[in-house]
Specification:
Blueprint lengths: L13 H9 L37 H25 L3 H33 L25
Helix pairs in contact: 1-3, 2-3
Length: about 140
């Protein structure tokens, strides 16, 4: 065992964190807004001060949104075509607008859930006690030439 203090590795409650994030609220307190604007995650919660800058949602929410929209849209498209036989232009316009609106509605919800998941699992620096910046960084000494 090394001589340094270990940080807590227990997970936080997942379901409340996911729900708070999906409601676009801070996963820690559920009170402060998670986003500044449409998709920009705030650096800190206005209510509890939780550092949210550690989140690394990246492309995950976009991929999951595309997956959900396409899996919802494809069977619906087939069912409407079989039942009503609308024109190609009507289907193109209707399902195109539907996919855009559904994607825009789901993207912040899914991104909030991703941030909540990362917070609950203490991923990417979401631990209780981050290492102090005052601690020295240990580097290998390079011999002088």
């Amino acid at each position: 065992m090394s001589g340094h203090t270990a940080y807590p590795t227990t997970d936080r409650p997942l379901k409340p964190a996911l729900l708070r994030g999906a409601m676009r609220r801070c996963p820690a307190c559920g009170q402060g807004p998670l986003f500044h604007g449409y998709l920009t995650v705030r650096d800190h919660c206005d209510q509890c001060g939780e550092d949210l800058s550690h989140q690394r949602a990246d492309d995950g929410p976009a991929y999951l949104t595309i997956l959900l929209v396409s899996h919802l849209g494809a069977p619906l498209l087939l069912a409407i075509y079989i039942a009503f036989r609308p024109s190609a232009m009507a289907m193109l316009i209707g399902f195109g607008l539907g996919a855009i609106i559904l994607s825009l509605a789901l993207l912040p919800v899914i991104k909030g859930g991703f941030v909540g998941f990362q917070w609950a699992r203490r991923m990417h620096g979401f631990g209780d006690a981050p290492p102090s910046r005052a601690e020295p960084v240990h580097r290998e000494k390079v011999p002088a030439a």
